[in-house]
Amino acid sequence: MFGSRSGNLLWLYGLSVDVDSELQAFVAEREWDQFHSPANLAKSIAIEAGELLERFQWNDDADRERVVEELADVLTYARLLAMKLGVDAEQIVLDKLELTRTKYPAEKARGRSDRYDQL
Q: Does the global pTM surpass 0.70?
């Protein structure tokens, strides 16, 4: 149940938390925006992604709680970077998904891991 929507009481009651607003408040309270250049945030994403990967270094059955913690760090820095760049995180994911759909049409890519130019 950890990290799932079924375990989130706010979701169960139809309430939501504006993640971006919470992140902005967190950063503002600490006066950390001065350190959040796009380059620094991109570096932080890579560093946290490395820490996420480290959880799987010797075992594919990594501790789920630790994986979720590292994933949260990656997502946090990604959202902070999106805000810094003035883009909507959800929209750019949807836009990229649409491009990827054209590169990997389901009828050609289904069940295959080949690159789009090898389909």
A: yes
